[in-house]
Design a protein that fits this description.
- Helix content is 53%, strand content 13%.
- Strands 2-3-1-4-5 form a five-stranded parallel β-sheet, sandwiched between helices.
- Strand 4, helix 6 and strand 5 form a beta-alpha-beta unit.
- The chain is globular and about 45 Å long.
Length: 180
């Protein structure tokens, strides 16, 4: 008997939109596994400014970590996914690695939660674009709808943001189990 496919839920959006905190909250609420954001630790430990090639490495490691976690569980919440690296490359370098584009066509998520920029900006040495939030939100919204058929936009502050995400996941899981 084959093991059922892992349900993959990705949390994405521009920087400083609460992706990491939301991913952890959802994992706790649904007793599910978490795939942490690889980029934060990697870029934080570099002893130099990151380069275009680093973003490809980050994307590949994020995917490897996701697949490793997915092999051992039935439900995972992924703190970011490849759309983050795609937009990062395009905004910073006006191009994107073909590997990222190809992998985005291949890789599927059962649900993508797009975090809105309605949270206040939090200063962080790894964040770069506080002045570009509306433009980045529009990019994420446009591209997420192109790549991901099941998407919910997450809004709100504090507990209401988490509740919005929990409701989106519950709605998805209800329809998913009814169709299986």
């Amino acid at each position: 008997m084959s093991q059922p496919e892992t349900i993959r839920i990705a949390v994405t959006g521009p920087e400083s939109t609460g992706k990491s905190e939301l991913t952890k909250s959802l994992s706790l609420h649904f007793h599910a596994a978490t795939v942490e954001e690889f980029a934060r630790d990697y870029v934080g430990q570099l002893n130099r400014p990151y380069k275009y090639e680093d973003i490809l490495f980050i994307a590949q490691q994020q995917v490897l970590n996701e697949d490793r976690v997915a092999a051992n569980t039935s439900l995972i919440f992924c703190d970011t996914e490849l759309l983050v690296t795609k937009i990062w490359c395009e905004v910073k370098y006006n191009q994107c690695h073909p590997w990222i584009l190809n992998e985005m066509q291949r890789r599927k998520y059962d649900l993508v939660l797009l975090c809105n920029t309605d949270l206040p900006w939090e200063e962080d040495p790894l964040r770069e674009h506080p002045h570009m939030r509306p433009m980045l939100m529009n990019l994420y919204r446009e591209q997420a709808t192109q790549f991901y058929p099941r998407m919910a936009e997450i809004r709100g502050l504090g507990p209401s943001r988490t509740e919005c995400a929990i409701q989106a996941v519950n709605d998805f899981l209800l329809h998913h189990t009814m169709s299986v």
